[in-house]
């Protein structure tokens, strides 16, 4: 675990992004930096963090911090919680994006794998949101984006169960803290062209090509939805239709599609 800061305090708002060195997290960091935010980048790999921080600082002229932390470890989590709770250097935007995917089905995975999966997808979102919201509500401003998934609307094992928690938690927090000037939103993407599926050794042909989206327009739309006050952001009409239709399709029928994105 380590913490580094590239510049002194500035007048720019600060955004903290977990899982910030690749995929959706990196795109959030880029677009937030492009809109004038200093960024705090959180991931496990210090070398990639340093490289990403340098590129963003040079491209956008913003300040950067890096936090090397494993969010399945409570000590690593505590480091990020402390940064979010820092009243002297407040974080205006939190993006809970750190991801974890298990290719196998529940009983094919070791219990410690499932525990780490739960810790990153659920416990980290809850604890980091708690730390950030305390400071945000106190000062009357701030935003939290919790990267969930359209899988949360579907029966797809513990990943779906975790994402259902994230979406419902975000919807509740959106209503609970709006009057305090704080915005909370769940982002529910589907299949995105990032390293996430590659690390799981899942091929692009494991799902139809029309279901794969790009991170740049996804994040651009998400930030627009956040600015407009939405509680949930679902990208593209195809995924909106899937999320809506899932409410009316029997669970047994939906389970026939569990193999999508697993091959």
Model description:
Helix 4 runs parallel beside helix 5 (about 155-175). It is built from 9 helices and 10 strands. With about 260 residues, the chain is α/β, with parallel strands linked by helices. It has one domain (about 1-255): NAD(P)-binding Rossmann-like Domain (Rossmann fold, 3-Layer(aba) Sandwich). It starts with a strand and ends in a 9-residue tail after the last helix.
Number of helices: 9
Query: What is the correct CATH architecture?
Result: 3-Layer(aba) Sandwich
CATH superfamily: NAD(P)-binding Rossmann-like Domain
Largest sheet, if any?
8 strands, mixed
In total, the number of strands is: 10
Q: Name the CATH class.
A: Alpha Beta
What order do the helices and strands come in, and which of them pair?
Blueprint: E1 2-5, E2 14-18, H1 23-34, E3 38-43, H2 46-60, E4 64-68, H3 74-85, E5 93-96, H4 111-139, E6 142-147, H5 157-177, E7 182-187, E8 191-192, H6 195-199, E9 212-213, H7 215-227, E10 232-233, H8 236-245, H9 251-254
Parallel strand pairs: 2-3, 2-5, 3-4, 5-6, 6-7, 7-10, 8-9
Antiparallel strand pairs: 1-4
Helix pairs in contact: 1-2, 1-7, 3-4, 4-5
Give a brief outline of the structure.
By secondary structure, the chain is of the alpha/beta class. It is built from nine helices and ten strands.
């Amino acid at each position: 675990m380590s913490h580094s800061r590239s510049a002194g305090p500035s007048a720019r708002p600060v955004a903290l992004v977990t899982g910030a060195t690749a995929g959706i997290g990196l795109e959030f960091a880029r677009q937030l930096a492009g809109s004038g935010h200093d960024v705090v980048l959180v991931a496990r790999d210090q070398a990639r963090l340093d490289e990403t921080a340098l590129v963003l600082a040079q491209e956008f002229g913003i300040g950067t911090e890096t936090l090397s932390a494993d969010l399945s470890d409570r000590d690593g989590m505590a480091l990020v919680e402390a940064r979010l709770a820092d009243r002297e250097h407040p974080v205006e935007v939190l993006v809970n994006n750190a991801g974890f995917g298990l290719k196998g089905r529940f009983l094919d995975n070791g219990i410690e794998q499932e525990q780490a999966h739960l810790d990153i997808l659920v416990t980290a979102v809850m604890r980091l949101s708690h730390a950030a919201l305390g400071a945000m509500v106190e000062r009357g401003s701030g935003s939290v984006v919790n990267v969930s998934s359209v899988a949360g609307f579907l029966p797809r094992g513990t990943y779906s169960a975790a994402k259902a928690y994230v979406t419902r938690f975000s919807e509740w927090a959106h209503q609970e803290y709006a009057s305090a000037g704080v915005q909370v939103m769940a982002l529910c993407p589907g299949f995105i062209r990032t390293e996430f599926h590659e690390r799981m050794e899942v091929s692009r042909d494991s799902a139809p090509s029309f279901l794969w989206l790009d991170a740049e327009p996804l994040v651009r739309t998400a930030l627009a939805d956040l600015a407009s006050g939405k509680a949930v952001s679902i990208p593209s009409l195809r995924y909106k239709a899937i999320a809506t239709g899932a409410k009316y399709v029997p669970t047994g029928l939906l389970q026939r599609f569990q193999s999508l994105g697993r091959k």
